[in-house]
Amino acid sequence: MSSPDASNGPSKSSKPNVPSSSVVSTARISTSPGPGYEDRKNAGQIVAHLNATLTEKPVVKEGDIGYAPMEPVEIDQKDFKCNVGKKYRWGGGGGDEDRRTEATTVVCMNYH
Amino acid sequence: MFTTLPERARALDLRLTSMSTTMQSKYSMTNVSSVGVPCTEEVQVVGRICNEAHEGRINKTSVMLEGDRGGAGGQRIELDLAPLKTYSVFPGQIVGVQGLNPSGRKMVAKRICEGAPLDKVKSKAGELMKMQYDQRNGQPLSVFAAAGPFTTSSDLDYAPLVDLLAVCQRLQPDVVILTGPFVDANHAMCRDGDVNFEDEDGNDVPVSYETVFQERISRMIEEFFDEGQACPTQFVLVPSLEDAFHDNVFPQPPFQDRVEGGIVMDIPGGEGIKVGTLGLEEVEQVVKEKQPQTHKRVHCVSNPATFKINDVVFGVTSIDPILALNTNQASININRMERMAQHLLTQQSYYPIFPAPKSANLDLRHIDKFSMEVTPDVLIVPSKLAPFAKDVVGTVVVNPTTLAKGNTGGAYASITIHPIKREELEGDGEIEIEHKVAERARVVVQKI
């Protein structure tokens, strides 16, 4: 007696001809947490770049040859009014415009 | 969040009319009509892109154009983009359209103008010479950019941030821009309220999210300055909507102490614990002890923020507009990432999408606070999408992606901006010249 698979070539359906009650799942469920941060690979690998042929800033510390003192960079927001200011007020709810404008805030927000 | 409908409508209309004025003058648009006015000849209109369906993604058959309230009464008409070879539209985008609208209900587009970028910042040659050569001896400016989450999903040890700070200690960049979330509200431990630190006796003590920032981020930056030799690095901290201890509204104010300097708790079990502070003042104190003649080292800015580092204008936001644009747009024949970044510049906004996804709580009354005032030289937009560094209409746009990705490490960006050639700056110091940062910037996004 030949099996249906042998007579018709490879079956498109790979379901075994066994009662469903006897099917035992062979899928393996991994219980390990997988590679963690310490096990990561390719640390330092470049994933995107622009003008990569330009040089990096050389690291010359005080005492090294070629060291010249530099002034620290200046970080400045004052030219841009679009930034949310430092002062910030939580309203008591209700959208009281008078109370809002009284506050010396750049941004004030009322929440319900 | 409390914003009334009229307030929101007014904000949206103001933005539409101001963009319309800019576009008309920039592109010398003539024969401009109102949206929805029937005309047998070709006309130009400026309006806002809307999705016909109230839910779901926009597609080429559901694109509508909404006019302003003054000229068009805010009416919406169908927009047929089929004749165009390339386009990219998303809800909230202000566009100029040239085409035919004989019925007044449907406009067939022949040309589309997807916004107008603002002018670039110019500086006087003399000022640039002073900053780049007199103050810095022609040395390039080095900026690192990294985005949160800064800890892996399994713990609150902030190991990727420790590694980044070690790299900073070695390479000594001038500025490190850190964008939130610093204490991620979506972190499993924060979500479950399972945030405990060990006390001196080895007992688990539940702590606030503010304390996590204080004990991890502030403490690490403090140690960064405390260890090793004098380091010139300055930090810029940008908040995120996902920061568990900060206001969940966009635009976001900068980090600040709830109680200036904090207060020491005097309750049983919590003696000596400082609350109401993020501990950043202590970082400054440590720096001052080590280098008395020093400058401020930790700068808290808003989200979004536009600021200058010496002469270079930086724009930063942590809200991930690239992902929001990518998931809700209709386009054909485009370089996707580049066009998404271009939308921010041409729409003159750090978040031009409207309506925004549920995760972004926009306060439209402060729409001017997330509009761009100038086109930045460098735009940092951390996104969950693949990292990139591109020259987009003369602006360097960088997506450094996140420093931690699930249980493993992510990436950070290293930006080196070389000075303008000395010959170009010599001569008349009063001449204003463009920064052209894209030509002299080296950007590398690398894995941590």
Provide structural commentary.
- The complex is a heterodimer of chains A (112) and B (448).
- Chain A is built from two helices and four strands, in the order αβββαβ.
- Chain A is mostly loops.
- Chain A has a two-stranded parallel sheet with strand order 3-4.
- In chain A, strand 3 (88-90), helix 2 and strand 4 form a beta-alpha-beta unit.
- Chain B is an alpha+beta fold and 448 residues long.
- Chain B is 23% helix and 27% strand.
- Chain B has helices spanning 5-26, 125-134, 159-171, 188-191, 209-226, 280-290, 321-327, 336-346, 422-425, 437-440, and strands spanning 39-51, 63-66, 76-80, 87-89, 94-101, 106-113, 122-124, 141-147, 175-179, 196-198, 204-206, 234-238, 263-264, 274-275, 298-300, 305-309, 312-316, 330-332, 378-380, 388-392, 395-399, 404-405, 408-409, 411-417, 432-434, 441-447.
- In chain B, the strands form eight sheets. In chain B, strands 15-12-9-8-24-26 form a six-stranded mixed β-sheet.
- In chain B, a hairpin with a 5-residue loop joins strand 10 and strand 11 (204-206).
- In chain B, helix 3 (159-171) runs parallel beside helix 5, helix 5 packs parallel to helix 6 and helix 7 crosses helix 8 (336-346).
- The mean pLDDT of chain B is 90.
- Classes of the chains: A little secondary structure (112), B alpha+beta (448).
- Strand 1 (46-50) of chain A pairs antiparallel with strand 26 of chain B, so a sheet runs across the interface.
